[in-house]
Specification:
With 470 residues, this protein is mainly alpha-helical. A 3-stranded antiparallel β-sheet has the order 1-3-2. The chain has a 3-stranded antiparallel β-sheet with strand order 4-5-6. The longest helix is centred in the C-terminal third of the chain and has 22 residues. It is globular and about 70 Å long. The N and C termini lie far apart (66 Å).
Length: 470
């Protein structure tokens, strides 16, 4: 478009405060509230008496539901971001389809690219000795029954305490912190003891009668796997498989992140196809627009909290039953389907109790969650995932008879965790580690915004003053 075209475009003209308020159906003072929250940008023209607003930006806010007071019930907080776009059953990182990123690049490569715009092939993140020592000591002091989310929250606080430069919010310092914090969190988690976990043992015993059929098809699966590894994902599969050797202790774990995380999630041996699924899951879960945990992160970053603190804020929100823990519910459901041999009975029990069926439906996707679609495709190449994958399909088929519910990423994660002997909380751990990279990306964006802008106004509903002294 030429400069002449811009000048002639009526939507390019600036609106006065009154005109913007009329388009939004709100009071003029509410327009400035939108500005303070980052939902609108304003500009004061030279010699002008008031601020002006971009007409297209105002109209976009109106389409998103801006025609209501932001302090009222059901108000929407919109934050401009260049990280994630969710559109028409697709998810994009900086305009690139996340499924394509997961198919061609490792978690570390995508994280680095998301932070810096540079795709660095083969980049590895390494935990520094001091931070890892502090994190491991703190985690080891926790009770034996402590879950992984509690361990991660303690680890990030301990790592922060070991870093006297954590308050440096320059981009270079934040990136250095990000590259070391993620591997520190993984290495601080205890390795899983060797031997078959009970959940996996039960699933294998329940499917013993299918062992012969699976062995008969092993040659076909192996051939398909070999062909797949010669394709776009071959480089990643080879790297991940080569890194399967036990890593040296403290601070020397410098291979790909997925194998390091694998040993913290299960005692089952890793194989290239399974590691590809785990690494792809890490990529796909890096970010997902302004989820609750990401909003918590941006609020903390708006107050200029350091990177460790913003990750702590994300962990706090992620720990809710309606956010990070959702994959654990799907995991338990699949185990029950395998145990009872019927998805119909399990689904009926959930619906009878007034519960949603875990792993189905997502408010941002009318159709299938694209992250689930990508993981299911990779799980096809994992022979040990066959029964769990069939159980998930049975759940989808059973519910589809009555309501069009599509699989979401929690169900795909559950297939991976059930098939590989991981505990129910493993999906949440994968989610937390993966999302840390996205939180750092959002913090970097927020550090470039005016400080303390994430300050919504409360709608007071208490007794009107003056009231007598209690």
């Amino acid at each position: 478009m030429t400069d002449h075209d811009v000048a002639q475009d009526p939507d390019e003209r600036r609106l006065s405060t009154r005109e913007a308020a009329d388009r939004l159906g709100v009071k003029p003072e509410t327009v400035y509230a939108y500005v303070s929250r980052g939902q609108l940008s304003s500009r004061r023209e030279p010699g002008g008496r008031g601020s002006t607003f971009d007409a297209r930006e105002v109209d976009a806010l109106a389409r998103r539901g801006g025609r209501r007071e932001p302090s009222g019930a059901g108000s929407e907080l919109a934050v401009r971001t260049g990280i994630t776009l969710i559109d028409r059953d697709h998810c994009y990182f900086r305009g690139v389809d996340t499924s394509e990123l997961a198919a061609h690049h490792s978690y570390e490569e995508v994280a680095e690219w998301l932070w810096t715009g540079e795709m660095r092939r083969g980049i590895r993140f390494t935990a520094p000795h001091d931070a890892l020592t502090a994190a491991r000591r703190a985690v080891d002091a926790l009770p034996a029954h402590t879950g992984p989310m509690d361990r991660l929250q303690v680890a990030v606080i301990a790592a922060a305490a070991a870093d006297p430069l954590r308050f440096d919010l320059s981009e270079r310092a934040v990136l250095d912190t990000a590259r070391t914090l993620i591997p520190t969190l993984v290495a601080a988690l205890p390795r899983r003891a060797t031997g078959r976990p009970p959940a996996q043992a039960g699933a294998e015993e329940a499917g013993a009668e299918e062992a012969g059929a699976e062995e008969a098809g092993a040659g076909e699966v192996g051939a398909g796997q070999a062909a797949a590894e010669l394709g776009a994902g071959g480089r990643r599969a080879a790297e991940l498989g080569a890194a399967e050797k036990p890593a040296p202790e403290l601070g020397a774990e410098d291979g790909p992140l997925a194998p390091r995380l694998w040993s913290r999630l299960t005692s089952e041996p890793a194989d290239p196809p399974s590691l590809r699924v785990l690494d792809a899951a890490l990529v796909l879960l890096i970010d997902h627009d302004l989820a609750a945990s990401t909003l918590a992160v941006r609020v903390a970053a708006s107050a200029r909290a350091h990177p460790y603190a913003i990750v702590s804020a994300g962990f706090g929100a992620l720990d809710g039953a309606l956010h990070g823990a959702a994959s654990g519910l799907a995991h338990r459901m699949l185990l029950e389907v395998l145990d009872r041999g019927s998805a119909a009975a399990v689904v009926a029990d959930h619906l009878r109790a007034g519960r949603r069926v875990p792993g189905l439906g997502h408010p941002l996707y009318p159709g299938e969650d694209p992250r689930a679609r990508a993981l299911f495709a990779l799980l096809e190449d994992v022979p040990r995932a066959r029964r769990a994958l069939q159980a998930a399909r049975d759940v989808i088929t059973t519910t589809a008879r009555h309501k069009e519910w599509h699989a979401n990423v929690d169900l795909a994660l559950a297939v991976l965790t059930v098939a590989t002997g991981m505990p129910a909380e493993a999906g949440e751990t994968i989610f937390a580690v993966a999302r840390t990279a996205g939180w750092i990306a959002h913090a970097l964006e927020e550090y470039d915004e005016p400080p303390l802008r994430m300050r919504p106004s409360g709608q007071y509903s208490g007794p009107r003053p003056p009231q007598p002294l209690p």
